[in-house]
Each structure stands twice: as C-alpha cells, then as structure tokens.
Specification:
The complex is a heterotrimer of chains A (271), B (293) and C (354). With 293 residues, chain B is mostly helical. Chain B has a single domain, classed as MetI-like (MetI-like fold). Chain B contains 14 helices and no strands. The model of chain B is unreliable at 1-6 (pLDDT under 50). The two termini of chain C are 33 Å apart. By secondary structure, chain C is an alpha+beta fold. Chain C is built from 9 helices and 20 strands. A 6-stranded mixed β-sheet of chain C has the order 6-7-8-3-9-10, sandwiched between helices. A 5-stranded antiparallel β-sheet of chain C has the order 13-12-11-14-20. Chain C folds into 2 domains: 2-225, P-loop containing nucleotide triphosphate hydrolases (Rossmann fold), CATH 3.40.50; 240-344, Nucleic acid-binding proteins (OB fold (Dihydrolipoamide Acetyltransferase, E2P)). The chains are: A mainly alpha (271), B mainly alpha (293), C alpha+beta (354). Chains in contact: A-B, A-C, B-C.
C-alpha cells in the first residue's frame, strides 16, 4: 500500500479511535473535577484537577466493601472454573472419544440459554437456599456461566501441546494428576493465564445477576455503580472516580490479553 | 480371545469430564424445568393464597397483553440494530486498522477499551456525562453552537440505548474481525495485488470473504448476549418512557421482581428462551460446521 | 528367554481392524525392528507394547507377565518418541530424572544414574540446558538418556531418527546400535526405513496392512524373502521383477527372451506355470553377450553405478561396482546370476520354494 493511503488510513483510524475512547476519557476528566465543575455548562475542559473524589470514595461510600466483593467473586469463581475445566479440557484434548465433539458443542449450546429466561427460578432457588445477597450465589453463577467458555478455551490451548509429551510422562510413570500438574500446566501457563483473565473480566463486569440477586452485603462494583443512577446530577465527579477505579484493573487486563480473549470469546473459531 | 473389561491403556476420562458436564447439566436442566413448571402455575409472591395449576393462562395473559408485540419488536430491533451496526462498522474498521499505520497498537487499545467497561458504568457515562439534557456534554456542545438541546432518553429512547450498546459491543466485533483479518495469508494478498486488485477489490473479494467465519461467530455470540441486555436499560430508562425501551429481559424483571408475578414472569422467560433458540438455532449449526474438533 | 511376547494380538479402531492377529516373540537382549510402509500398524503395535493403546484381542507379555491390563508406568518399559517429546520447561537433567523423581528414587541414586547416562551419551556439558537450546541430534540423545536412566526391561523406539538430517541419521544409527550392544537391553524399534532395519536389527519384523509378512535375521530375509513384498521392500535399489512363464528350464518373458532359473528349479516340473521372476540389481552384470537391454539412464553414485535398463518389456536396475559409461538409448547386454534369482507366485506373491 502506498504511503499516502497508509497515512490516510492511519488518520481516519486514529480519529475514530479517539472519538471511541472519548467517553472514557471524559469520565476520567470528570473524576478529577469538583462536583460543581463536573456539572458545569458549558462543559469544562480546562480546570484544576483534584484527587479529592478518590479520597472521598474510600472515606464515605463503603467502596472498599464493594470492591472486595468484586475481587472475591471474580477470583473464587475463576479458580473454581479452572479447577473443574482443566481436567475436562485435558481429557477431551488428549483422549478424545466418540462423544467429545458432541459434549463440546453441547457445552457451547448451554450459552444459548438467555440468563433472563431462568431469572425466576434462580431467584427463587437463591431465596430458598438462603443465598440471596450472598457472594456464594454469584460465585456459583459466574462459575457456571463461564465454565463452557473456560473448557473451550483451555481445550484449544491444550490441543496445541504435542500429545507425545503427555504420553512420555505417562510412560515415565506420571498419573493423570501428575501429568497435568508437572507437565501440562507449566507448558500451557500462558493459556491458563489468559483463560483466567477472561473469566475474571467476565465476572467483574457481570451485571445481570449482580443487580437482581444482591443488595448491600454481596453487591459487587457493577451493582454499586448502578445505585448511583437514582439521585442523578448530584455526585457526578465522585461517581466518575468510583467508575474509573472500578474499570481500571479490568481495562488493564483486557489490554494485556486482547489476543487470547478473541480465542476464548469465539470458542477457538478465531485465533 | 475375550475382550478386556477394563484397560490399562485408556485413560479414564469420565471422572475428568463428569464434574463439568454434571455442573452444566444441572445448571441447564433445573432452572429450565422450573421456569417451564412455574409458567403453568398460579404463583404470586405477594399472594400466598394464590396457588394451583394455571394451565395456559399465564401464556394467554401474556400473549393478550397489548404491550407484548411491541416488547418483542423492541427486543429484536435492539439485537438486530446493534448487530448490524457493530459488524458493519467492525468490518470497515478492521480493514482500516489492518494497514499498519504508525501507533496502530495504541489506537487499537483505545478502540477496544469500551468493551471492558462494566455495563453499568457505560450506561452512566452516557446517561449523565454525555446525554444529560442539562449538564451533559452533548447538550453543552449543541447549546454553544446555537442548536436546541436534545433530551435523548425522552425523545429517542430506543436509539439512545442502541447507541450505548453499540458503543460497548463495537470493540468486540472489531477485535475479532481484526484478528481474523490478520490471519489472512500475506501471499494471498500479494497474489491478488499482482493480479491487479486495488484496495477496494481486495477488501470485497479477499478480506470480507476471509472474515466470513468470524462474522458468523459474532452473529451467534451477539445474539446470545444482546438478547439479555438489561443493565443498560435498568440504569438509564428503566424501560420507559412508557414501554419504549422495555425488552423481554426487562419485562421479566418487572413481572418477577417488581410485581412478584412468578407465573407470568416464567411464561415470559419461556418465550425469551424460545426466541433465543429460534434466532440462534440456525447460526449455531453454521458455526458448528466450521469448528474443527 | 523371551522378553516380549505378542500373541494373537489384534487391534480395532472402531470397526476398522488395523492389526490382524500378530505373533512376535522377542528374545531377551535382542534388537528387534518393526518395519513396513506407513499404515502397516508398526507404530500401533509399539504403542500397544508401551501401554498407550489397548489390546483389542490377544495378549502381550513382558518378561513373562501378561501386561494387557497393566498401566504403562508399571510395565517397566521406556520409550523414545519420534519427536523426542522432551519436556520443554525442564532442563536436560530434569528431563532425564523425571521418571525417577516420580518413582521417589533417592536423590543420590538419581544423580548417579543421570551422570552415567549423560556420560554414555556425551551429554555431560548440556545437563543444565533447556531442550530449546539443543540441536536435533542432542535432543535425540536426551530422549535416549531419559529412557536410559530408568534401566528398563525394554526400550521402545518410535522412528527416532526420522527428524534428523541424512548424515546425522547414519551417525545416530551406529550409536544406537553400539549402545544397545553394550547394554544388552531388549529393544523394539519402529522405522519405515529398510536401511535402518537392515543395519541395526538382530531381527526384523516386516509388516504390511496389519499383517506380519516375515520375521527373521536381516540377511536371512534379504536372501530368502518369503514373498514378493518382502523381496521388494528390503534392499535399495529394490529387487527387479519380471512377469513370465516357465518353459524348458527357464523363464520366458513377454518378449520371448529366456531368463535362467536357479538350478534347483531346473529339475522341477513347473513348465507352463506363470511366475514373477525376481533378481536384485547387484546380481545383474553387464557383459558382452547375453540378454539385450536398452540403457535408459545411468546414475553414478560414486561407489557404484546404477543403470536403468529396458529389457523384456520391463524396467530393470542393474548395480555395478564398475564405472559404466553408456549413452541412453544404446543397447547393452546383461547376465543374471541364476543362483540368486527368485520365483514368486503371481497370485499370492509367495516365493516358490526350490
């Protein structure tokens, strides 16, 4: 491609990228304003930035508790998912049977069930089991919703490992657990890491169940942020600061793992 | 010679796979069965006296609801509009980003960022900071240019929701399409250029067909996720004004958790499931054929 | 004593039978090579000995013990894989000691065995490298070292040299054979390369389409092939075959020319029988008089000259120690050594016994 065309494409791409990112940037600006500046019209682009909002969040809003819920739910659901998905992906990648393909497609098809279709029973089950507004309920739900994606993603990573190596470890006397632990996991550590990262991202941003099943105790950041929607116009700057904090770690994770994310979200169909 | 009952060579895979399959089976069957069951029951949390078999009354009630057709239309329009916008914009953007301009890496990061913003935050950014009729950025810009201010969520509620959701999902489509495009064999492109294909011809005859598989995956995934759009509506319009932005998820939420009408909500849930599967049934088969397992 | 016995072993993948009742007895300390074209079932058989594939029917014994139901790790076998299958995240030392560590062998003992194997294989300097930093030949040695340290009853090799370049392959061939002769460990080795089989094996098992075609010492098979397949498979360039009919104590080819028979056949009443006549390239000599043959191509390899000829309507190859200079198209005359000629049944392919 000629130089002019490249520059033209680059210019257009940069323009679109900046426009696309602008809402996030604008929120970042708002988080550094005072509440008065944040709602000022016309909108203020130049101001004296302050970190007061970030201080306030920790001091006033019980932000730490929501953040803790988000972290605890994401991490536990992800660990649980890996614990269950790794052996399954191992078995299907290295010892495929007559039904392996069917099982994988069936797992994929469980994602066809829209969450909203089962809202009622999940709500009632949680209520009857005393799990409403508990982290446990969200851990279980996030674990189950991400399990098919996890199995698929791990499956595609595992299949890139030569089967020879797995067989060599069997001949060397390793049982399945030892093979997974000492041979497979070290080899596919990057794949495991990006699967975990994707799971954390999806758990962290999960809003449907968080909004419907939690109140004060177990609410993660998604639900906490939503609670700002009622008294609108009052705490824009503080809300922005809380939002920036809520999305910052996940943005970073997303940037790091963008390529592997594609594989996970497309069930290995696009790499 | 007798065939061996058990074998040393075969790794016993059932115990390894069973936890995943079991968990997902329960996760799928139990709530599904319950939804179906409740949808035929008289069941309201506010009125414990109301019990018994409702037959198809929940469905009849739901289907006779004059709002239902427009709710279904809103649900499908939301899915289709966002899908068409994200994929068509994504295809073009992927082709532009594939040219390898300076700073491509950073621009790509800026492009994909909205996908990682939690839905409630996205909704609030748009609702307060951008689209607010008094203090929002858009209002400020319009006012300073001398135009009348638009009250987005009152005047164009569904379009506003579509804009927000498109902003969230465009990065997803873009990233997947770009990845697909980058896997295009460089030699194939060179061959096409030697054959005299220009940028436009390369785009339509080489790049777009190459993205076909990625597009079909996108259609499937977006169908699933967009049918469950909830947080954005919950935070911004709460389904209104009137029912202008009430989609099936929001209807179910209203029936179940605001009106406590379990039977009615379950009937709507069944319809959502059917809708999802009708929309996705053909698509998943297309994708399944392309998965090399 | 029999180290490995394979009795009536069959293998089915679904409905497809890939091994049909295979019987092989392997003596203690023998170097046995399973050889055959791809798809013949040799690797499957090796993997069944290792315990990586089920035995569908029949039984496999190692050291007199039936191992059908015994897991690979309890069979006391070590295997060298085609692609080496080294653990990429472990150093050479860790690769070699992995099996011993799993078996909870004492540290001192592990170190001793690894050092010794490293010394034998010339890996002493490389013990702390990772496989990534090694050349193909060195990786090959590490794979062998990993087998060696376990001091198993049986070594299994699955086409271990196929990823090496030609020169290294010849060198490793000699090293493996020399090592095996030193250690006297029973070895089962799979290859598709008949030269590897001929040069290394004490005993060759030739397989095709899931059947064992013939078993025996390399030169026995070379000199007395049981059938046309074995005759054609062993030797390079391979044996020449001509169709014809027996008459008057010779074979009459399609064009009516007479090809001499081994003496033992001369007396037999085979007249009128259709046969396939087999003669190895080195048993055809180019002479002043004899069967006329048109030169198609002359290929000097340096040590010998191979001449591709047209005679009696067939393409033949003659190999000679002498340097032959001939233009394509010229007519030469050839003689065959009748004592070295073979006759095969055209239907069954079986060699006709004298």
């Amino acid at each position: 491609m000629s130089g002019v065309k490249t520059w033209l494409a680059g210019g257009v791409a940069w323009l679109i990228a900046i426009v696309n990112f602008f809402p996030i940037f604008w929120m970042l600006l708002a988080s550094l304003k005072t509440e008065v500046e944040a709602v000022q019209t016309p909108p203020l682009f130049i101001f004296h930035p302050t970190l007061a909002n970030y201080r306030d969040i920790f001091a006033l809003q019980g932000y730490a508790g929501y953040a803790f819920n988000s972290i605890a739910i994401s991490v536990l659901a992800t660990l649980l998912m890996l614990l269950v998905a790794v052996p399954a992906a191992f078995a299907m990648a290295f010892y495929p049977g007559r039904y392996t393909r069917d099982i994988l497609l069936w797992m994929l098809s469980t994602k066809m069930l829209p969450a909203v279709g089962v809202l009622v029973p999940i709500y009632l089950l949680s209520r009857d089991l005393g799990l409403l507004d508990t982290r446990t309920a969200l851990v279980i739900i996030d674990f189950l919703s991400n399990l098919p994606i996890g199995v698929w993603m791990l499956f595609t990573f595992f299949r890139e490992t030569p089967k020879d190596i797995i067989e060599a470890s069997r001949i060397d006397g390793a049982n399945v657990g030892q093979t997974i632990l000492y041979v497979l996991l070290p080899l596919v550590a990057p794949g495991i890491a990006s699967t975990a990262l994707l799971s954390v991202i999806l758990c962290w941003n999960e809003a449907f169940w968080s909004l419907n099943l939690t109140a004060h105790n177990a609410a993660p950041l998604t639900a906490f942020i939503a609670s700002f929607s009622a008294p609108q116009g009052l705490f824009w700057a503080r809300l922005s600061a809380a939002s920036v904090l809520a999305i910052a770690p996940i943005l970073a994770f997303g940037w790091i793992s963008q390529r592997q994310l594609v594989r996970g979200l497309t069930f290995g169909a696009v790499k | 010679m007798q065939r061996d009952g058990h074998s040393a060579a075969r790794v016993r895979t059932i115990p390894l796979i069973a936890p995943s399959v079991g968990a997902l089976l329960v996760w799928m069957i139990v709530p599904l069965a319950m939804t179906l069951w409740f949808s035929f029951r008289r069941y309201n949390l506010l009125n414990p006296m109301l019990t018994g078999f409702a037959g198809i009354n929940n469905y009849r009630f739901l289907l006779r609801d004059p709002a239902l057709p427009s709710i279904l239309v809103i649900t499908v329009v939301l899915v289709l509009a966002v899908m068409v916008l994200t994929i068509s914009l994504g295809v073009v953007l992927a082709a532009i980003f594939n040219t390898g301009f300076p700073g491509q890496g950073i621009a790509r990061v800026l492009m994909i960022s909205p996908f990682f913003v939690m839905p409630t935050v996205s909704a609030l950014i748009w609702k307060n900071l951008l689209m607010h009729p008094v203090n929002g950025l858009f209002a400020g810009v319009l006012r300073s240019l001398g135009f009348p201010v638009i009250d987005w969520f009152s005047s164009f509620p569904l379009i506003s929701i579509i804009i927000i959701v498109t902003w969230e999902w465009l990065p997803f489509a873009f990233l997947i399409l770009l990845t697909a495009l980058q896997s295009l064999d460089e030699e194939q492109l060179e061959a096409a250029r030697l054959d005299g294909a220009g940028t436009i011809a390369v785009f339509f005859f080489i790049q777009v067909p190459h993205m076909a598989r990625a597009i079909s995956v996108l259609v499937m995934m977006e169908t699933i996720f967009l049918l469950s759009i909830f947080a954005e509506i919950y935070v911004t319009t709460a389904g209104g004004p009137g029912i202008a932005t009430t989609n099936l998820p929001f209807l179910i939420y209203q029936r179940a958790l605001l009106a406590f009408n379990i039977g009615g909500a379950s009937a709507a849930g069944v319809i959502a499931i059917i809708l999802a599967n009708v929309l996705a049934a053909l698509l998943i088969r297309t994708v399944a054929r392309r998965l090399d397992v | 004593m029999t180290a490995v016995a394979i009795r009536g072993v069959r293998k089915l993948f679904g409905q497809i039978e890939v091994l049909h009742s295979v019987d092989v007895e392997i003596d203690d300390g023998d170097f046995v090579i399973l050889v055959g074209p791809s798809g013949c079932g040799k690797t499957t058989l090796l993997r069944m000995i290792a315990g990586l594939e089920d035995v569908s029917h029949g039984e496999i014994l190692i050291g007199g013990r039936r191992v059908n139901d015994i897991a690979p790790k309890a069979r006391d076998v070590a295997m060298v894989f085609q692609n080496y299958a080294l653990y990429p995240h472990m150093t050479v030392r860790q690769n070699m000691s992995f099996a011993l560590r799993l078996a909870r062998t004492a540290r001192v003992e592990i170190d001793k065995r690894v050092e010794r194997a490293a010394e034998i294989l010339g890996l002493g300097q490389l013990l702390d490298r990772s496989p990534r930093q090694l050349s193909g030949g060195q990786r090959q040695r590490v794979a062998m070292g990993r087998a060696l340290v376990r001091n198993p009853q049986v070594f299994l090799f699955d086409e271990p040299l196929s990823n090496l370049d030609a020169k290294l392959r010849v060198q490793m061939r000699a090293e493996i054979k020399e090592l095996q002769q030193r250690l006297k460990t029973t070895t089962v080795y799979v290859t598709h390369d008949q030269i590897e089989a001929m040069t290394m094996a004490d005993k060759i098992v030739i397989m095709r389409n899931g059947y064992v075609e013939q078993t025996g010492a390399p030169l026995d098979l070379y000199d007395h092939p049981a059938n046309q397949f074995v005759a054609g498979f062993l030797g390079s360039p391979s044996m020449n075959f001509l169709d014809g009919e027996i008459a008057e104590g010779a074979m009459i080819a399609a064009d009516g020319l007479r090809w001499p028979l081994p003496e033992s056949f001369a007396a037999q009443p085979l007249s009128g029988r259709k046969v396939v006549y087999g003669i190895r390239p080195e048993h055809i000599t180019i002479t002043e008089a004899g069967i006329p043959a048109r030169v198609q191509l002359v290929e000097p390899t340096g040590s010998e000259t191979q001449v591709v000829l047209q005679a009696s309507g067939s393409t033949l190859i003659a190999a000679s120690r002498e340097r032959i200079i001939a233009q394509p198209g010229t007519i030469l005359h050839i003689m065959v050594d009748p004592a070295r000629a073979h006759l095969f049944d055209p239907e069954s392919g079986k060699r006709l016994a004298a």
